[in-house]
Structures are given as C-alpha cells and as structure tokens.
Amino acid sequence: MAIIWELDFYSRPLRDEEQKKVWEVLICEAPQTVSQDPATLFRYSQVCPSSTVNSLWLKQAIEAAIAESGQRPQKIRFFRRPMNNMISKACEEAGVTGVASRHTYALQLWLQERYQQFYPQQPGYEASLAQGASVQYPELNTAPLPDAVRGDRGDQWALVSLEAAAFEDMEDWEVGFGEAFSLKALGLAPETRIPGLILFSPRALPLAGWLSGLELGYLKFQEKPLPLMRLETGVSDSWSLVNLTNAATVAEAKGFEQAKAEAQQVHFLAIQSDPNSETFAGFWLLREMGESV
Length: 293
Hints:
This protein is an alpha/beta fold. 24% of the residues lie in helices and 32% in strands.
C-alpha cells in the first residue's frame, strides 16, 4: 500500500515574544483503511521562525520528517491554495510529489484537535486569530465528465446507504480502484447510515481508473441553477456526475445530504458495471470537510 502524507504549513493563533505570528508545519500519515486510527499513524510537527518562512525551510522539515519516520511517502497532499507554490516547490526539492487536495481528512481532524485543545494552552495564544482562521474555496464551474469515460444513455445510478458496521470488512471487498479512511476515529455508531452514490456503467473500469487519478474530495447536491450531483476534486475542480431531472430524484438528493449531515459528512462513491455485480470497479469513502482551519 502506498504511503500518503498530508501537510499543512501556515501561521497559528499564537504570537512569539516579538508579537509576530508563529508558523508551524504539520505532517501526518493518511489512513487508507477503515481499521487505521489516524492517531496511531506517523505525525510530525515543527515550529518555523517567522523570519524563515520559505520553501527551503519547509524542504528541510519534510526531510527531517522522512528521517524520523523511516519512510518516504509516495505523495504529500495539502489543502491551502495560497501556499501552493511554496509547498509544491518544497516537496519537489525533497523528492516527493506534492498535490493540492481536499482529501486531507486526517490532517483536518488533527488541526481541529489542536485548535480546540493544544493551541489555547500555549504561550502567546490569541483567540481572535483562531476565530479568523479558515480557508475559503472559490465558487467552481461544474464540468461534465470527459466523453472517453462517460457511458451511453443507458447508464444508471442509485443513491443508497450502508450501516457504518458494514465497512468493517471493507478490506475484503473486491475493489479495482479506491481509498478509505478510519470511521472509528469519528466515533460513529455502528448503526449510523452512511449514504452513497453508485454509478452503473459499461465503462465502469475506465471511469474508475480515470477517477483514481484525481484527488477526490466529496460529493455534493447542487439545486441551482440545474439540480445535479457533483463531485469535488483537487481544490478547484468540480464534475457533474448525475443530472436530477424530476422532483423524486431531487428529493432523493436532499435525503442524501441529510444523511451526510447525520453521519458527520461521511459518504461514498462507488462504480459498478451493473446493478447485479458483486464487485466494484471503484469505491471511495469520502468526507465533506467544508472550510478548514
């Protein structure tokens, strides 16, 4: 299994003795199965002097994390668009691929934990800086899937749900492409309904393969200007997966969003060749994180 890290390099709600903002790098290993608890995987943090906030310092921090962990990640995900150039350059110089992604679930859980429990206990903490810390993603234009992976007019889809307990044996499922993360870390009850969208297509494998090359973020119901289910990828891309053509399908999509909210925004996207298939060409467990600190 490929090793994937998640990284954030940004100022924190702290000031040093000279009243300058304190910068910090956080690096954590991304869990890729439902049985992996993010808190038990590799984590690394280092404070950066405000006078050395640059790609060279960050490269050295990444190299220090690699040395400490004893492993080199296949890629490093990061979600802050304003830091794209600096982080990408540091990753490249450290010999690791850096990718902008909203699929940074473990990192954002760790950040939430630190904002709630760690930073308030540190010298120089300023609550006003914590309250103003968020990431605003731009409004996106939603594009159709490429012709090469779209099925014909006979393609089908279904909005469904599974109990959280059903994912416990996910590692035994036959899945061509996909990714998962720990549900135990969220404390979801076994009976919690996890909603999902299944796409049935005669081009299931090409579609799943193409999607696997994207940084899948989350599924979202869009009511206007045209009702549809869209897939958010990277930090600035959006794809139309399903057009909702009547009141019944719109009601289903609203139910999907309600179920997401009740499951801490956890949901899934699945690809199958037909409704009778017992295997998945693709299966991704996803979570909508929204604005991030």
